[in-house]
Amino acid sequence: MTKPKVLISDKMDPNAARIFEERGCEVDVITGKTPEELKATIGQYDGLAIRSSTKVTADILEAADNLKVIGRAGIGVDNVDIPAASAKGVVVMNTPFGNSITTAEHAIALIMALARQIPAANARTQAGEWPKSDFMGVEVTGKVLGLIGAGNIGAIVASRALGLRMKVVAYDPFLTPERAIELGVEKVDLGELLERADFITLHTPLTDETRNILSRERLAQTKPGVRIVNCARGGLVDEAALKDMLESGHVAGAALDVFAQEPAKDSPLFGAPNFICTPHLGASTTEAQVNVALQVAEQMSDYLVDGGVTNALNMPSLSAEEAPKLKPYMALAENLGSLVGQLAHGDLPKISVETEGAAADLNQKPIVGAVLAGLMKRYSQSVNMVNAPYLAKERGIEVREIRNSQRGVYQTLVRVTVATSQGDRSVAGTLFGNGQPRLVEIFGIGIEAELAGEMLYIVNDDVPGFIGRVGSLMGEHGINIGTFHLGRRATGGEAVMLLSVDQKIPQDVIEAACALDGVKVVRGLSF
Ligand SMILES: NC(=O)C1=CN([C@@H]2O[C@H](COP(=O)(O)OP(=O)(O)OC[C@H]3O[C@@H](n4cnc5c(N)ncnc54)[C@H](O)[C@@H]3O)[C@@H](O)[C@H]2O)C=CC1
Ligand SMILES: O=C(O)CCC(=O)C(=O)O
């Protein structure tokens, strides 16, 4: 088996490359590529490990023909076009906790640096000025810290600030009253936070709701003398308004680790009074970088080598223990989805995936994803489990999951039913003891067959001599039959025939089969 190939395209702790190699991947570490260079080479990689410098745009993804996973060694994935990755069937993962403590500590460091004007005092002291009387600071003890965003990092900042004897008020629409009590913070609305806070620190992602959350109007509502820290994302604060308010003295100090445009080389804030900045250093400690590098390499190799999915932003999780159990089910589910997709006519507005017996105890999401991947192959060849649910949604297909843990005739069963203009049509399959998938029912008729390679599907009247006529037809056209499977609704009623053949069935043979006496449907199938 060829090894999955991974590109590490941003500066990352060497532990990442070591883990990839130990886990059976080939790794190239090439940082500093231009977008054009990345686009020219991305086609050869199965995995791309990044931090924040590499921008994974739709244009780059277009050339990423073998890419299966993008791993962000860090939290924010705003440098990845996730909808484009999903459409391409590429899993996007991050490492949501590895750098949280480090980033929270950076926010606290910036709060302290603002309170005591440490950077300016340091610069002037080292310039030989000894400017003791110019640097009157403030204590943080007893001051109100306004936390915007109380997720992983915000919660750690709150705990550290409480240790510094600050009073913490938090604005986060998703913060429950119970969690606020647990964190020891007072949950407030944004207006109250702006009015009360002596220090404001931001810890939200950049979204349509949070963009410019500290706008000019909101900055004007803050308490005079407020100090502001942003270690989350550029774009949360109106930088031009912040500059004006630093100049007017309404804002007594501001510290930014992140900027709307990065790298920030000529921000209007540079040189503003009491302005401090760092070049997106929030996550830059040895500890955090080892954490995120190890974690991203482990997660990505789990996916590339064993199919396990952890911390994916565009796909449900699947543990490395679950993955081998689910693998044969996913093969079965994909074949069943593909079968209904090839057999049913017209649009398929509704699909239900029912699991029975042992299959019902498993994680259903990957099974449903695999059914959709099989089904959606009728629309696109580049479909997989990652993009199939998105494609199905785009086409307005309604998907239902039904679990039935009681066993029926089979110890384990997956049934796929689609609503067609002729009514519901369903196919079902099971797994043999050795994990081999088998079709066991097609549109209400019991039949046992392996769905593989090229096949011929015929629905006919159950009459003597028909099987021989089909055999002769295949022989006349030089088509070798591998296996022959039969089922019927009742003696003399509707019968189904599934043949596996050694080549794709040509259209003229399908037409000749259609012309046989008693034939109702003929279809060539590919798996
Ligand atoms: N400077 C740096 O180097 C680093 C920056 N970050 C950034 O820090 C930010 C926070 O990261 P985490 O705490 O891990 O994320 P998280 O997802 O754990 O927390 C984000 C919080 O923001 C809240 N939120 C969402 N919309 C909001 C809104 N409109 N108003 C108020 N709160 C809202 C959410 O409810 C959530 O509690 C992210 O943007 C991340 O990219 C993370 C690591 C390093
Ligand atoms: O990788 C970095 O240095 C940036 C970290 C970051 O911004 C994040 O994890 O969201």
TrEMBL record:
> What is the protein's known function?
Catalyzes the reversible oxidation of 3-phospho-D-glycerate to 3-phosphonooxypyruvate, the first step of the phosphorylated L-serine biosynthesis pathway. Also catalyzes the reversible oxidation of 2-hydroxyglutarate to 2-oxoglutarate.
What SUPFAM superfamilies does this protein's entry cite? ACT-like (SSF55021), Formate/glycerate dehydrogenase catalytic domain-like (SSF52283), NAD(P)-binding Rossmann-fold domains (SSF51735), Serine metabolism enzymes domain (SSF143548)
UniProt record, GO biological process:
L-serine biosynthetic process
The EC category is oxidoreductase
What is catalysed by this protein?
(R)-2-hydroxyglutarate + NAD(+) = 2-oxoglutarate + NADH + H(+); (2R)-3-phosphoglycerate + NAD(+) = 3-phosphooxypyruvate + NADH + H(+)
Tell me one GO molecular function of this protein. phosphoglycerate dehydrogenase activity
Q: Which UniProt keywords apply?
A: Amino-acid biosynthesis, NAD, Oxidoreductase, Serine biosynthesis
> What PROSITE patterns would the database entry show?
ACT (PS51671), D_2_HYDROXYACID_DH_2 (PS00670), D_2_HYDROXYACID_DH_3 (PS00671)
Pfam families named among the record's database cross-references: 2-Hacid_dh, 2-Hacid_dh_C, ACT, PGDH_inter
Q: Which residue ranges does the record assign to the ACT domain?
A: 455-527
The family assignment reads:
Belongs to the D-isomer specific 2-hydroxyacid dehydrogenase family.
Protein's name according to its UniProt entry: D-3-phosphoglycerate dehydrogenase
Pathway(s) served? Amino-acid biosynthesis; L-serine biosynthesis; L-serine from 3-phospho-D-glycerate: step 1/3
**Native species of this protein?**
Aurantiacibacter spongiae
- Enzyme Commission code(s) on record: 1.1.1.95
What range does the record give for the signal peptide?
none
